[in-house]
Design brief:
132 residues, mainly alpha
Length: 132
Amino acid sequence: MSGLHDKEEVSIPLLSDVLVSGNPLRASSVERARAAVAASVKASVPEPEGLFAHDADALVERLRGRCMTWLTGEGRAVIEARCSAAMQEHSTWLVGQVSREIGLALETELKVWVKAAVREELAARAGHPPSA
């Protein structure tokens, strides 16, 4: 007895099937996706005379080196400046939020404190001990 999901016997596609040939998003494996991307790039971009795979590898390596140099030098300064600006903006917002919340809490407490102080003062003037 053959398997229930043999490709020859199934009329609907399985999750492992390549639904659209050449579309790497529909490939059933990473290898098929890479092959589909490589085939589509090779078909759409004609290879110039004299450019070989090792030339492309050398170019990729040089670009990687430039990116890393930029990220450890000038790029790092750009990233630090942006992070610093974001931190300053967030700190300013946070101080505003905390100040507003403390102000609201203090406003309600102040009402209680003033009422208690007035009661104490009135009780002291009348000669009675203050009540809580």
